[in-house]
Amino acid sequence: MPQGPERRKLVRCVRTAGNAAMPSLLRAFCSPTETESSWAYYLLARLGGERVVGRIGALLEDPAIADEIKARALGLLSDLEAPVPAEVRLRDPEALLERSVLDLLSSLEDEGELRQAIELIREQVPEAELPPFAAELLRHGGKRAERVLAALRAESGLAKETQEALAQLGREAGGSPSSRAAASLMRALERGLEYLEAGRPKAARRRLERFVTHHPENAEGRSALGVCLLQLDQLESAVEHLREAARLEPDEPLHRWNLAAAAKHAERLGGAYLALRDYLTITDTGEGASERRKEARRFVRAYERMLRDTHPGVPLGDYLRGEELFARAHAALEEGRPDEAAAGFEQVLALVPRH
Known about the structure:
This protein has helices at residues 4-17, 22-29, 34-47, 50-61, 67-79, 93-106, 111-124, 130-141, 146-153, 160-174, 177-197, 201-214, 219-231, 235-248, 253-265, 269-279, 289-310, 316-334, 338-351. By secondary structure, it is mainly α.
């Protein structure tokens, strides 16, 4: 990269060219070559202005732009003290976060760099977000992040609740490997639930899957992952997790309600019927319970009426079994296994002749 007088001369040239320099600078900014992209970053920061902010902001909203480039764009907007667009679309925010944490920690070779990093964190991270920020540092950086946590805890002027939250993270980090792993998993669940509530199921999925992998008997995690997969149209997997949540906590009405919703979306009306029939046997006192119960009763009555009118004489159990066999056979047909599908459809007809 140019140094000294040559660099100053090129900065003057870019400022003189103004907007005419933008196309070349933006191409270089998106380059996979670090030297080229870093030089473009430097020149765009010196050029500044509304046009630079607008074009860099547009990169953050473009789903075709790689996360690495968007991380660069976020840094440039921060340097320009410009607002970040409300909609930043990342393909894999977790991986980007991990890389960012590791880059930060690898740069802290002495106390001066650590002090500079703490000052930057205090400037750019709102105090209320310091504990979750520190938790992510610990999760991705492990022991190397404990220096940063200790320095944050030593900062003056922090609110009491912030100090207590950071102290708790310190106690967890200083505990046994198993206790640290358990705390990390609970944070994954909490963050997954936050993303789910915020309408970001893709971001929630990775965290919830990580939690459920280690805690398959946790009904809350299973239910949250099931709802997340339902929002992502992963219907078969959603049904599986929600059914398991209902098994683990049979007295929780919302597990049955969510299972019915997933089964209905998957066109497994028999499964939805069974889930809602079970739901109606459980007391539901949550918000919106009255409407849920009305809708459940309507569905159950309509399903039983359809069975009486369309398949007279077929026992309910046979019909429900036929529904399950039909779903499996249809899946086999779509996946290119016609012999298996034909055998499954024959089993359906043996149970429900007029299917």
